[in-house]
Design brief:
This protein is α/β, with parallel strands linked by helices. 62% of the residues lie in helices and 15% in strands. It is built from eleven helices and six strands. It is elongated. It starts with a helix and ends in an 8-residue tail after the last strand. The mean pLDDT is 84.
Length: 394
């Protein structure tokens, strides 16, 4: 069914990296979600009203929120495909994140209201009349939600969309919630134990949890989260294709929405190499990264001295002295400038976030240790980086 819907509603299924195809897939998910959830909402609202079941009604409202979420998702994907303009030179792909944030807000509000209703039902319980047709309808609802889970998961993997994968997980959770509602009705029908209000409260809490989790997932990229290990590996993989690249560091990725990722990285090359040749290699690496992974990469060229035994010895000493303080510390851009009375050691230290407030202490301990290793006087010129931009790059 999923392949058929893709073939009918998405024109260019061969290139899912295409912004237009991606938007079509997202809007297809939204449209299918709207239709399915509106039908489920109407069915469950009718059953809940007739049976007087707050848990069934709560589950119906959950489906209504899902339908609203699908509308926002559809609009979000449609807006996200708009091209870059003068006011938004990085495009509009973050609309996908904003739509997720709006969905999370609606889910939290609905969950809160349903929690209040369920507490009222616990305080003043009333009988639930759940018929066999109602049970069959709820079982059908579980089946539909499981299909939506599989449907959205396949679409999400097809276009690598965290939003659609989250929608898939939400559908799976809805199936679990509806199963809980069904069990509450059957329990009261068979054992005459009124747990409808408690089950309704559990469903409401489940909705609230889903809303908070979704909000966290959508706010994180908007705030500027760290690049995933998979994304780092893609970029580093391109660097490894060039033998002239001796090392790399300071990888920073800026996410402006799916398909709109911009990154920068420093690469080290032998200082003896022709700068024009190095520039040509760097241009090729940037172009390959864009063509292969749709990542706009800017590479900073760092010429490094090779074959200098004294420099290599001091780099090793400095590295070991810093690791003795904390094995998470690393260095890069190590240079040495010799003078008559002192030797300047110029380099960057990458610190974990918890050590950044102690950077003066780290440098002071390093200087103290360097002062006693040789007859030469060493003066360190240090810049501090976050280890976040350098971890998993070696």
């Amino acid at each position: 069914m999923t392949d058929l819907l893709l073939k009918v509603f998405v024109k260019d299924t061969a290139d899912m990296k295409n912004a237009s195809a991606r938007a079509s897939v997202g809007m297809l998910s939204g449209a299918v979600g709207i239709v399915c959830n509106i039908l489920l909402f109407a069915l469950k609202l009718f059953i809940g009203t007739v049976a007087g079941s707050v848990s069934v009604t709560a589950d119906a409202m959950n489906n209504l929120s899902d339908a609203t979420s699908s509308i926002v998702t559809l609009i979000g994907f449609r807006l996200a495909k708009m091209p870059a303009d003068e006011d938004h030179p990085y495009g509009h792909a973050r609309y996908e994140y904003l739509s997720g944030l709006a969905v999370a807000a609606m889910i939290i509000v609905i969950g809160f209201e349903l929690a209040k209703t369920s507490v009222g039902k616990i305080i003043e319980p009333s009988a639930v009349e759940l018929s066999v047709p109602a049970c069959i309808a709820l079982v059908g609802s579980v089946a539909v939600k499981l299909w939506l889970c599989i449907f959205n998961r396949k679409l999400g993997k097809t276009i690598s969309s965290s939003a659609l994968l989250a929608t898939s997980a939400d559908s799976r959770n809805d199936a679990v919630a509806t199963t809980a509602v069904l069990l509450a009705g059957i329990t009261e029908l068979v054992f005459h134990i009124q747990i409808d209000g408690f089950m309704g409260l559990l469903v409401a809490l489940f909705i609230l949890y889903s809303g908070v989790t979704l909000a966290k997932d959508t706010i994180s990229p908007l705030l500027g989260e760290n690049a995933s290990p998979e994304l780092k590996e893609l970029i580093i993989g391109v660097m490894r294709t060039c033998p002239e690249v001796l090392g790399y560091h300071d990888l920073m990725v800026h996410d402006y929405g799916p398909g709109q990722r911009f990154a920068s990285i420093h690469v080290e090359m032998d200082h003896k190499a022709d700068p024009l040749y190095c520039h040509e290699l760097i241009d090729t690496l940037e172009r390959n990264c864009l063509e292969e992974h749709n990542i706009h990469l800017v590479i900073h060229y760092d010429p490094v001295v090779t074959g200098d035994e004294e420099l290599d010895r001091l780099r090793h000493i400095v590295t070991e002295l810093l690791r003795a303080q904390d094995d998470r510390i690393s260095i890069h851009d190590f240079r040495m400038v010799k003078g008559e009375k002192q030797t300047n050691l110029i380099f960057d230290i990458a610190l974990p976030s918890d050590l950044m407030p102690k950077r003066k202490e780290v440098k002071s301990k390093l200087d103290s240790c360097l002062a006693v290793i040789d007859d030469m006087t060493y003066y360190t010129v240090v810049d501090f980086d976050m280890v976040t931009f350098n971890e998993d790059l070696h």
